Amino acid sequence: QVQLEESGGGSVQPGGSLTLTCAVSGVTSSPDCMGWFRQAPGKEREAVAITRLSNAGTFYVDSVKGRFTISRDSAKRTMYLQMNNLKPEDSAMYYCAADAPWGGCSRTRGGADFKYWGQGTQVTVSS
Hints:
The chain is built from one helix and eleven strands.
């Protein structure tokens, strides 16, 4: 059974940094398509960053470009999200997700088609 577990969330002041980690278990190889999503209270879930091993493709939502970096360690079956210069509007529950091998790796509808999800880790940015 595929399981994803996030860690690294917390509370920081504006301008601070956090690194989120997503550990994947129950797989024999690292999933091709993985991503980070977030959902703030009263808002729809959105894709923050997605990466695909097969074509080295990477997506970032405009609001985090230049501040967040998604990376993978396939050998460790781990994904990271380095978040710098955090803003209050980055506050949300952050989820890691992996798509099935046959999936389309679609970021639409907040990643509704991604097959596997973690429980989430809270990120709060406030002064």
